[in-house]
User: Which sequence fits this backbone?
């Protein structure tokens, strides 16, 4: 601990030594300016003596009664006793008037202060009521917004229902018009509508097709019954050269450059292929 105290004292002494050295350096730098400062000091002393002499001279002139420049004559007359008394009376009347006005203003101020205190008391008492009213107002505003939103939604639904009703009414009128026209055509012995006419043609076509198929099946059954018993029925695909003479052989595509091939079956992707449009040939 003692060593630390000694180190602290040494540090403080070093700081003081540095400060003294800095002051010595500052003074040393100012040594060349000493003659200039001495001359400046002499000049200031001379100016001070001159100002002192000037002040002394002005004081003597001011204190000399025979000097006419130190005073000036003021014009005007001194009022007599009666004028002063009249002026005092006028000032007293003005003072009384001011006192009366001041008294009235004090009464008004007191009344206003009483009213202000009453209003302040009422405001403090009605603050709770104001808060309750504000809460009720906020609640009512929220309910009004909710009801307004529901009302707008109801109006929108009503408009949609009205539009749907108008559309259905128009469709009903169109259907009634079609029904009247169909009745007139039916009374005239014609098809009531084009769709009914097409449906009748389709039913008639199906009936004729079914009759033709029935007839074909009947003929096929008669043919099969007339075929000898030794003949066999097969489900094998017919050979490509079944109806071609042996000396001709199978036809070769593209002038015989390729081997014969069997066309592949049509797949389900064919429905996605657009039929090409053949260009018109001009002669």
Assistant:
């Amino acid at each position: 601990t003692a060593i630390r105290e000694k180190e602290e004292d040494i540090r403080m002494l070093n700081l003081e030594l540095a400060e003294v050295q800095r002051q010595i350096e500052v003074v040393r730098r100012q040594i060349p300016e000493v003659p200039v400062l001495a001359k400046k000091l002499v000049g200031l002393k001379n100016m001070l003596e001159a100002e002192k002499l000037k002040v002394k001279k002005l004081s003597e002139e001011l204190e000399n009664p025979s000097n006419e420049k130190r005073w000036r004559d003021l014009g005007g007359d001194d009022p007599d006793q009666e004028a002063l008394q009249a002026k005092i009376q006028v000032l007293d009347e003005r003072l009384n008037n001011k006192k009366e006005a001041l008294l009235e203003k004090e009464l008004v101020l007191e009344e206003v202060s009483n009213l202000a205190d009453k209003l302040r008391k009422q405001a403090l008492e009605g603050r709770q009521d104001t808060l309750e009213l504000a809460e009720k107002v906020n609640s009512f505003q929220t309910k009004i917004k909710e009801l307004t939103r529901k009302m707008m939604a109801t109006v929108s639904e009503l408009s949609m229902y009205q539009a749907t009703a108008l559309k259905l009414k128009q469709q009903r009128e169109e259907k009634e018009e079609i029904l009247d026209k169909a009745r007139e055509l039916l009374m005239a012995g014609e098809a009531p509508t084009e769709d009914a006419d097409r449906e009748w043609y389709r039913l008639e076509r199906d009936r004729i097709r079914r009759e033709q198929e029935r007839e074909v099946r009947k003929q096929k059954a008669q043919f099969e019954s007339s075929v000898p018993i030794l003949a066999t029925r097969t489900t094998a695909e017919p050979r490509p050269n079944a109806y071609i003479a042996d000396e001709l052989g199978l036809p070769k595509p593209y002038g015989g450059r390729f081997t014969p091939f069997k066309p592949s079956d049509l797949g389900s992707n064919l429905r996605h292929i657009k039929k090409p449009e053949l260009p018109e040939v001009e002669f």
